[in-house]
Design brief:
CATH class: Alpha Beta
Number of strands: 5
Order of helices and strands: EHEEHEEH
Number of helices: 3
Number of domains: 1
Radius of gyration: 13 Å
CATH architecture: 2-Layer Sandwich
Amino acid sequence: MKADRCTIVEVWIRPHNIHLLTSIIEAYEGLGVVSTEDPRLARVRIAVAPGCEADLMEILHNEQERLGIRFFRDGAPLHSDERSSKRKDNGNAP
């Protein structure tokens, strides 16, 4: 990945919280852009500005329970034990 390219983070979220997540991300000017990939399934894609990945992941993890955020990789949800072990391994969010 080139440093001048956005990183894409995809999550599922409770459908009624999509607008709230968008507002939170947009409140951090230049952090990223939220797109709803599938409103019925509440699949959301966030294009994160280069160098802002850690900030975004911190926000997502802080809001995870309240907004019902679920992370996924390769089209499948990550189970909570996978997220925990990944954070322990390298100190970064999935």
